[in-house]
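for the recovery benchmark. tokens below, seq after
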């Protein structure tokens, strides 16, 4: 048995040994790497001709319990006949394997094309699918996953960015003051927000159309506990105030399966800010990767942070405009 100390040692011979030991299934020599920045994902083939996807989770990102939360969510969705791709059972009886500190799972290969929302019915279909996912999501909690809240996930991300020294000295004070002010202004909006298991990264790229089978949702790696509206706004083409038609259509489909809290629409722009901070922290955690500077050549410089602060100022303006409009009853009939 070969050892896997980290991703750098995850060569074809090693990962095939790992998979065969975990499944007792003879594999061919096919090890096709697939795009995935955080994890390492490969397409494999059994000697019987079946194609599998092997997902090796980035060490230190998720605990065993957190990954098992992901797998339980997938199982709950599958039990509700929602089209998802569940991990296969391994020889040990579970769905999560481990080799030298790296967790891994195997999935059957499922193909499809990215779904495009071109007509009204497309938006309704997506809304219906998300409503069904949230019905499964509300069945149980996920104590080991991120909770999407300004004083939890966003505060933790800001602490990591600020204490890690990622912001340049020239922009550090402005970044800390601005983000602190935004968090202060949006926190109260979450006081009564419903929190359930959600996909967490429900953008268009994670919705696949399968001919003859309908829509399938993939990549639950970032599943979290948060407001259901988060899985809807990520699909919008613009800010909430300029996406009324798309929101109405999504919710028309959503309401066919699950009641939606229309007051939570006021969280869309605060959630957009939180997404920006989440992404900045996500990038900051990868800066020591050997290919990070190639993929993100302008990360961390003066121009980078000047641009980020400018974008955050604009987002804060949008948040405050929408907050006032909502309080005055001018926003989505609030």
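predicted aa per position
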């Amino acid at each position: 048995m070969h050892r896997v100390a980290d991703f750098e040692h995850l060569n074809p011979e090693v990962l095939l040994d790992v998979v065969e030991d975990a499944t007792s299934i003879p594999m061919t020599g096919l090890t096709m790497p697939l795009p995935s920045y955080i994890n390492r994902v490969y397409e494999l083939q059994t000697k019987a001709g079946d194609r599998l996807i092997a997902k090796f989770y980035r060490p230190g990102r998720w605990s065993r319990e957190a990954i098992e939360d992901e797998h339980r969510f997938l199982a709950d969705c599958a039990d509700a006949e929602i089209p998802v791709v569940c991990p296969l059972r391994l020889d040990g009886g579970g769905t999560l394997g481990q080799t030298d500190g790296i967790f891994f799972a195997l999935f059957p290969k499922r193909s499809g094309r990215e779904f495009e929302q071109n007509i009204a019915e497309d938006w309704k279909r997506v809304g219906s699918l998300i409503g069904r996912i949230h019905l499964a999501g509300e069945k149980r909690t996920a104590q080991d996953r991120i909770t999407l809240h300004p004083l939890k996930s966003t505060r933790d991300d800001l602490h990591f960015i600020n204490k890690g020294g990622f912001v340049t000295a020239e922009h550090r004070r402005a970044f800390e003051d601005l983000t602190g002010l935004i968090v202060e202004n949006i926190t109260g909006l979450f006081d009564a927000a419903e929190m359930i298991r959600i996909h967490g990264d429900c953008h268009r790229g994670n919705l696949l159309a399968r001919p003859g089978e309908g829509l399938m949702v993939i990549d639950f790696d970032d599943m979290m506990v948060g407001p259901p509206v988060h899985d809807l706004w990520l699909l919008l083409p613009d800010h909430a105030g300029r996406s009324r038609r798309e929101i109405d259509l999504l919710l028309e489909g959503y309401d066919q399966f699950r009641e939606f809290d229309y007051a939570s629409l006021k969280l869309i722009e605060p959630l957009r800010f939180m997404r920006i901070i989440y992404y900045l922290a996500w990038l900051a955690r990868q800066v020591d990767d050997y290919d990070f500077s190639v993929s993100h050549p302008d990360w961390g410089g003066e121009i980078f942070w000047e641009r980020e602060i400018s974008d955050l100022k604009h987002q804060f303006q949008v948040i405050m405009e929408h907050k006032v409009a909502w309080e005055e009853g001018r926003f989505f009939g609030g």
